[in-house]
Write a structure and sequence with these properties.
Number of helices: 17
Strand content: 5-15%
Structural class: alpha/beta
Radius of gyration: 22 Å
Number of strands: 19
Oligomer: single chain
CATH class of one domain: Alpha Beta
Length: 546
């Protein structure tokens, strides 16, 4: 069952991208009246039942769109300025929490937070502990992650996170109730991006290792485990997947989602882009949009969301033919389905998968003639950096990647020459090299720093709350989060706000790959949808929000 996307909200997304992109735009039907209350949030157990609110997408009107967050600040020019900024931002979050009296109730029965967010702690197991996973000066975090197979490179997310924890362990940033330093012990276990392997890994964590928190990679694995992790009242922070389901602070209060827009929002913006460019294609036939879709929960959300975009747009519904093939995540090559899709002579290409298959698709498109014949070719936000499309991956001069587009989540890639002079990137490269990590070995090292940043900062915020680092203080810090990641381009902020804003990152920018200079070149301004997405209660039996 595909999520239903209402026409007014679809048109709103179009209006946003028209106003912020330096490309030609078509007209709209002017029907944005039912979006007047978009982003107002929900309280209690109310959850949206359909439309973008049901899939965690943007539900904003054109007049409410902004290019930058209201809390964004000038970019710091040194690591010292960054640290000073984060200290001020942490202090502001702590002050807000304390002034509102949020936290665990004196009887230990309830955790309260911003905008009506509450957690019934009496529903936790009888032997549950707020400080489980903390022993002496050690705080253990368990990570189920891919270290092998076609997703092996995503292990670099964990290597970057481990680097970040080690750096702040040495600085004594994390503290217990007595103010004594805690050292994060970050333990990675390989699941090969196979949810069947993730399940026993998580079970081992829950039943034997008993860490403070459990981190997971990928939509299939997280969907298979987030029910039991929440039932055990264990934090599952910043899941490494942008599925809409993680925006569920009511039914899954212990799970928080990725530092990037949801895949459904990405699908809306693809549709808006195509609609803007329809007049570039022959009017006497349908525009053929082709995609290779990963055959799992991750890819199917992309597919369902894009189909809904087409169905709800009176223009796209009549003008676009959607052609797609599915592929398993562990498939060694993409040649066969790509040959089938190339034979259908598409006008637009969209990649709806991740990992090494992203690079394989770019190479195959160059080999089968689609590079010249397909006018617009899109990488997914899951393959955002130079590490997926650079010449070191494609071979030769890298010309095979020239002209590809992406709806970028805005991550600063250490491999990208555009950030060579960025003060934080320079500091990061120096520190990683000193620890034996090659910052150019993988784009996922940069992405991993972006994933690790809010967890590090939430632990630091919890350290300043009454009781120090506890599971409840940690979750409260995340649900109250409002800070600036050094790995996101200016104009993008990490922000959550209880029931009102359950998604930590909701900004993106379109970019185009320049093979000659080996960099993504921005096309327009940041599209900022911060606070414009409503919670999503995902029903796995029907693959939709209810």
């Amino acid at each position: 069952m595909a999520p239903r996307i209402t026409g007014a909200r679809r048109w709103a997304a179009l209006a946003i991208s028209c106003s912020l992109l330096a490309v030609g735009c078509g007209g709209d039907d002017g029907d944005d009246g039912d979006d007047a209350q978009a982003g107002a949030g929900t309280t209690g157990d109310a959850t949206p039942t359909s439309g973008p609110a049901a899939t965690g997408e943007a539900t904003t009107s054109p007049s409410s769109a902004s290019v930058t967050s209201s809390t964004s600040v000038p970019e710091p020019t040194s690591i010292e300025e960054w640290e000073a900024l984060w200290a001020r931002q942490r202090a502001a979050i702590v002050e807000r929490i304390e002034q509102n009296g949020w936290g665990k109730s004196p009887d230990g029965a309830t955790l309260t937070g911003p905008e009506g967010w509450t957690v019934d702690l009496t529903a936790c197991p009888s032997d549950w502990s707020d400080t489980e996973g903390i022993s002496g000066s050690s705080l253990k975090i368990g990570q189920s992650i891919s270290l092998s197979g076609t997703y092996a490179d995503y292990g670099n997310l964990g290597r970057a996170i481990e680097f970040l924890f080690d750096h702040y362990n040495d600085k004594g940033l994390f503290k217990d109730a007595a103010g004594k330093p805690l050292t994060v012990d970050y333990v990675m276990v390989d699941d090969g991006y196979d949810p069947a392997r993730t399940i026993p890994v998580v079970d081992e964590f829950l039943d034997s290792v008993k860490p403070f928190a459990i981190w997971t990679l990928g939509s299939p694995a997280t969907l298979k485990t987030y029910d039991k992790i929440n039932q055990r009242c264990v934090p599952q922070p910043i899941a490494m997947t942008a599925h809409s389901a993680w925006g569920d602070p009511v039914n899954h209060p212990w799970t928080t989602g990725a530092v990037q827009p949801t895949y459904s929002t990405e699908a809306i913006l693809w549709g808006a882009f195509i609609e803007q460019h329809l007049d570039e294609f022959p009017a006497d036939r349908k525009v053929r949009v082709a995609a290779l879709v990963q055959n799992n929960d991750f890819g199917k959300l992309y597919e369902a969301s894009f189909k809904s975009v087409l169905a709800e747009s009176p223009v796209l519904n009549d003008r676009v033919e959607f052609l797609y093939e599915r592929i398993e995540a562990q498939a060694p090559t993409v040649n066969d389905p790509m040959t089938s899709l190339a034979a259908k002579e598409p006008d637009v290409w969209i990649t709806m998968l991740a990992g090494t298959q992203c690079t394989q698709i770019v190479t195959e498109v160059a080999n089968n003639g689609m590079k010249e014949k397909v006018k617009y070719k899109f990488m997914p936000q899951t393959c955002p950096g130079a590490g997926f499309i650079g010449k070191d991956k494609l071979g030769g001069d890298g010309a095979a990647g020239d002209g590809w587009w992406i709806m970028s989540p805005g991550i600063k890639d250490m491999k990208d020459s555009a950030y060579a002079d960025d003060p934080y990137v320079q500091w990061l490269r120096t520190e990683m090299e000193a620890k034996g990590l090659d910052p150019d070995s993988s784009t996922n090292l940069s992405t991993g720093i972006n994933y690790g940043f809010p967890v590090v900062q939430a632990l630091a915020i919890a350290s300043e709350l009454d009781g120090g680092v506890t599971r409840t203080n940690f979750q409260l810090a995340l649900r109250s989060f409002d800070m600036t990641s050094p790995m996101l381009r200016p104009g993008m902020q990490l922000h959550m706000n209880g029931l009102k804003d359950p998604y930590i990152a909701e900004a993106a920018i379109f970019a185009k790959w320049d093979a000659a200079n080996q960099t993504w070149v921005n096309q327009g301004e940041v599209i900022n949808l911060d606070g414009k997405a409503s919670p999503c209660a995902w029903d796995q039996s029907i693959s939709a929000c209810t």
